[in-house]
């Protein structure tokens, strides 16, 4: 038995990726759940409009953070601030008592705002509260748009990551190297089927979410489709890139899981970004799912126009170009003569482990 134990330790020591996953993943989970996994919202952005906006803004206390105070504003401008994502809460100062508008797509912030208003009575008993876009604060209404992105990330990253690895293990990578194909041609041919499957999955998720949970789709389908295409290109590129640095399907799945886990926990899909510590929150802005979750909720629930979504769309396009370029460069190296032999030197035969 001791010989088997010794063999396994030696094999584990040589398998550096598995060893790194066993050490890095628990540390990552500890940091994420320690600093990011929180539903408590400590800061709520507020827009105050109306003739008494300055005095009303000055009277607000934490967790409310006034972003704009406009004495010339009215209810229409307040609703515009919520629709365009400039604030979570909009206060309209008026003679009969303030009107409080709350963005229901920001579920936890909306619940925190309701609780803070009821607990502190900052605006008095005459305040009228209205929740927009998700009037009953249903969790399913904010989860379905995010889950659509998660499905795309799963198909694009995990399933696609097995593509080139399958070629390598089957011994057909050399055939691709001698064929008159450019790296772009090979990558395009490999990701096209997954692209179509992901499109079907996305459509099914949106339709089922609408039929079973009553999730509305009030925005422009074309804007949503554009965001989904850009996001899918990023995830497909990540899948191809992972497959080019993996020697077998096990390694590919390990790396894919390590890229998916931070996106699930830090994208705002489950935990609100405003509740995360600043030292962890910056990671969220490097993750493509962060921008698709923001975009899908804005389009589906609020009907936000494309002019207010240029930032997530632009960043997804930038990430897509960067990831696909890296994937092509890496894949070109894999197609170079002798690259497979060089890459296989890192693998130790099982007989040596034994």
Short description:
The protein is an alpha/beta fold and 354 residues long. The chain is 65% helix and 8% strand.
Task: List its salient traits.
single chain; 354 residues; alpha/beta; Rossmann fold; 2 domains; 16 helices; 5 strands; disordered C terminus
Structure in words:
The chain is an alpha/beta fold and 354 residues long. It folds into two domains: 44-132, Rossmann fold (3-Layer(aba) Sandwich), CATH 3.40.50; 139-353, no CATH class. Helices cover 65% and strands 8% of the residues. It contains 16 helices and five strands. Strands 2-1-3-4-5 form a five-stranded mixed β-sheet, with helices on both faces. β1 (44-50), α3 and β2 form a beta-alpha-beta unit. The longest helix has 31 residues, at 183-213. The radius of gyration is 25 Å and the shape is elongated. The protein starts with a helix and ends with a helix. 38% of the residues are buried. Residues 340-354 have low confidence and may be disordered.
Secondary structure elements and their pairing?
Blueprint: H1 2-14, H2 16-35, E1 44-50, H3 53-59, E2 64-70, H4 75-83, E3 89-93, E4 99-103, H5 107-120, E5 128-132, H6 139-159, H7 162-170, H8 173-178, H9 183-213, H10 221-244, H11 249-266, H12 278-284, H13 288-302, H14 310-335, H15 339-343, H16 350-353
Helix pairs in contact: 2-11, 6-9, 6-10, 6-11, 6-13, 7-10, 9-10, 10-11, 10-13, 10-14, 13-14
Oligomer type: single chain
Helix/strand-derived category reads alpha/beta
Domain count: 2
Distance between the termini: 13 Å
How can the largest sheet be summarized?
Answer: 5 strands, mixed
Number of strands: 5
Strand order of the largest sheet: 2-1-3-4-5
Q: Spans of 5+ residues with little confidence (pLDDT < 50)?
A: 340-354
Mean pLDDT: 85
What portion of the residues fall into strands of 2 or more residues?
A: 5-15%
Radius of gyration: 25 Å
What is the general shape? elongated
Residues in helix, %: 55-70%
